[in-house]
Amino acid sequence: MTKAAVFGNGSWGTAFAMVMADAGCEVSLWGRRPALADTINATRTNPDYLPGVELPRGITATADAAEAAAGADFAVLVVPSQTLRENLAAWAPALGPETVLVSLMKGIELGTAKRMSEVIGEVAGVPAERVAVLTGPNLAREIAARQPAAAVAACVDESVAQRLQAACMTPYFRPYTNTDVVGCELGGAVKNVIGLAVGIANGMGLGDNSKATLITRGLAETTRLGLAMGADPLTFSGLAGLGDLVATCSSPLSRNNTFGTNLGRGMTLQEAVAATKQTAEGVKSCESVLDLGRRHGVDMPITETVVSIVHDGKPPTVALKELMSRSAKPERR
Ligand SMILES: NC(=O)C1=CN([C@@H]2O[C@H](COP(=O)(O)OP(=O)(O)OC[C@H]3O[C@@H](n4cnc5c(N)ncnc54)[C@H](O)[C@@H]3O)[C@@H](O)[C@H]2O)C=CC1
Ligand SMILES: O=C(CO)COP(=O)(O)O
């Protein structure tokens, strides 16, 4: 039987543990608080992150990383992106030499502008063939309700992507394989920033033309960055690109979208942070995505606008006027 260790028992870690258990895996779900692990085992629910959802029998919760990692075929990493480096340094010694490390995170590291798979390779000292990414339009609450959705299992080694695909395929969860890890990770990280932008527009009372413009031009700047970094541009019209962007930008379940809406309605950054219970990756990653764009000489005007609103306190109305008064350009260049 395939064994998975899921490191992170928040919304997506718990929902994905359900998917793997439903796919027939034996799943160990790690979280840093022993009391929550005990509650999950005793009640078969995770009241802090997925209240009211019954967890399958195949999941066992623990706060002991070595216990979770023992014999794992897959170590699924799903904590906030900015905490990965420190956490993984503690978990790595417990992982076996054959364990495939799978990133479910959608952020870029602040300071280094590294993708999560790069941080994993560096900290755990594993080659790219042992690092995979699982991404796509997968809002945790909908997956936990077993609503049908597709995803992408990506690895530079296609046979590893296929093993991951088999380990999480269920009647309601349909992963496709891809070998474009760079494109898949960029799609997931940049869509959070565009989700913030669309949320801000929503909070300002703007309509669907404005939101469709942000989504489409957001995808254009994601693709520009991807091309500069050697990604396959077709990845961005797939589930890891357009698919995830549409889910995040249209759903009130999206934390990034909701965070943006709160800012657009006039909340300060501090007020919006206080109103957000779970991880909205784009809030931190908008700065590292902009950093990544600059390192590759790529113009990312929407990302720049989001950073100016979120971190420089620029009023959304002023930022919008500036965005709309940029010089005229061809649609493709
Ligand atoms: N929630 C969703 O629908 C989806 C989330 N993701 C990505 O999954 C990642 C995790 O997000 P969620 O599970 O939604 O977040 P969450 O906020 O629901 O849960 C985060 C988990 O990490 C733990 N955590 C926080 N700081 C920590 C630290 N310093 N050390 C160890 N553990 C820590 C929390 O206790 C919690 O268990 C993010 O990168 C997000 O972009 C990806 C797809 C869907
Ligand atoms: O990545 C997600 C859906 O695929 C979840 O989006 P949020 O992190 O904005 O909730």
UniProtKB/TrEMBL annotation:
<keyword id="KW-0547">Nucleotide-binding</keyword>
<feature type="binding site">
    <location>
        <position position="256"/>
    </location>
    <ligand>
        <name>sn-glycerol 3-phosphate</name>
    </ligand>
</feature>
<dbReference type="InterPro" id="IPR006109">
    <property type="entry name" value="G3P_DH_NAD-dep_C"/>
</dbReference>
<comment type="pathway">
    <text>Membrane lipid metabolism; glycerophospholipid metabolism.</text>
</comment>
<feature type="binding site">
    <location>
        <position position="12"/>
    </location>
    <ligand>
        <name>NADPH</name>
    </ligand>
</feature>
<feature type="binding site">
    <location>
        <position position="11"/>
    </location>
    <ligand>
        <name>NADPH</name>
    </ligand>
</feature>
<comment type="similarity">
    <text>Belongs to the NAD-dependent glycerol-3-phosphate dehydrogenase family.</text>
</comment>
<feature type="binding site">
    <location>
        <position position="140"/>
    </location>
    <ligand>
        <name>NADPH</name>
    </ligand>
</feature>
<feature type="binding site">
    <location>
        <position position="136"/>
    </location>
    <ligand>
        <name>sn-glycerol 3-phosphate</name>
    </ligand>
</feature>
<feature type="active site" description="Proton acceptor">
    <location>
        <position position="191"/>
    </location>
</feature>
<dbReference type="Pfam" id="PF01210">
    <property type="entry name" value="NAD_Gly3P_dh_N"/>
</dbReference>
<feature type="binding site">
    <location>
        <position position="254"/>
    </location>
    <ligand>
        <name>sn-glycerol 3-phosphate</name>
    </ligand>
</feature>
<dbReference type="InterPro" id="IPR036291">
    <property type="entry name" value="NAD(P)-bd_dom_sf"/>
</dbReference>
<protein>
    <recommendedName>
        <fullName>Glycerol-3-phosphate dehydrogenase [NAD(P)+]</fullName>
        <ecNumber>1.1.1.94</ecNumber>
    </recommendedName>
</protein>
<feature type="binding site">
    <location>
        <position position="244"/>
    </location>
    <ligand>
        <name>sn-glycerol 3-phosphate</name>
    </ligand>
</feature>
<feature type="binding site">
    <location>
        <position position="106"/>
    </location>
    <ligand>
        <name>NADPH</name>
    </ligand>
</feature>
<dbReference type="Pfam" id="PF07479">
    <property type="entry name" value="NAD_Gly3P_dh_C"/>
</dbReference>
<feature type="binding site">
    <location>
        <position position="49"/>
    </location>
    <ligand>
        <name>NADPH</name>
    </ligand>
</feature>
<feature type="binding site">
    <location>
        <position position="255"/>
    </location>
    <ligand>
        <name>NADPH</name>
    </ligand>
</feature>
<feature type="domain" description="Glycerol-3-phosphate dehydrogenase NAD-dependent N-terminal">
    <location>
        <begin position="3"/>
        <end position="160"/>
    </location>
</feature>
<keyword id="KW-0963">Cytoplasm</keyword>
<feature type="binding site">
    <location>
        <position position="255"/>
    </location>
    <ligand>
        <name>sn-glycerol 3-phosphate</name>
    </ligand>
</feature>
<feature type="domain" description="Glycerol-3-phosphate dehydrogenase NAD-dependent C-terminal">
    <location>
        <begin position="180"/>
        <end position="320"/>
    </location>
</feature>
<dbReference type="InterPro" id="IPR011128">
    <property type="entry name" value="G3P_DH_NAD-dep_N"/>
</dbReference>
<feature type="binding site">
    <location>
        <position position="106"/>
    </location>
    <ligand>
        <name>sn-glycerol 3-phosphate</name>
    </ligand>
</feature>
<keyword id="KW-1208">Phospholipid metabolism</keyword>
<keyword id="KW-0443">Lipid metabolism</keyword>
<comment type="function">
    <text>Catalyzes the reduction of the glycolytic intermediate dihydroxyacetone phosphate (DHAP) to sn-glycerol 3-phosphate (G3P), the key precursor for phospholipid synthesis.</text>
</comment>
<keyword id="KW-0560">Oxidoreductase</keyword>
<dbReference type="InterPro" id="IPR013328">
    <property type="entry name" value="6PGD_dom2"/>
</dbReference>
<keyword id="KW-0520">NAD</keyword>
<dbReference type="InterPro" id="IPR008927">
    <property type="entry name" value="6-PGluconate_DH-like_C_sf"/>
</dbReference>
<feature type="binding site">
    <location>
        <position position="33"/>
    </location>
    <ligand>
        <name>NADPH</name>
    </ligand>
</feature>
<dbReference type="GO" id="GO:0047952">
    <property type="term" value="F:glycerol-3-phosphate dehydrogenase [NAD(P)+] activity"/>
</dbReference>
<feature type="binding site">
    <location>
        <position position="281"/>
    </location>
    <ligand>
        <name>NADPH</name>
    </ligand>
</feature>
<keyword id="KW-0521">NADP</keyword>
<feature type="binding site">
    <location>
        <position position="32"/>
    </location>
    <ligand>
        <name>NADPH</name>
    </ligand>
</feature>
<keyword id="KW-0444">Lipid biosynthesis</keyword>
<feature type="binding site">
    <location>
        <position position="191"/>
    </location>
    <ligand>
        <name>sn-glycerol 3-phosphate</name>
    </ligand>
</feature>
<dbReference type="InterPro" id="IPR006168">
    <property type="entry name" value="G3P_DH_NAD-dep"/>
</dbReference>
<keyword id="KW-0594">Phospholipid biosynthesis</keyword>
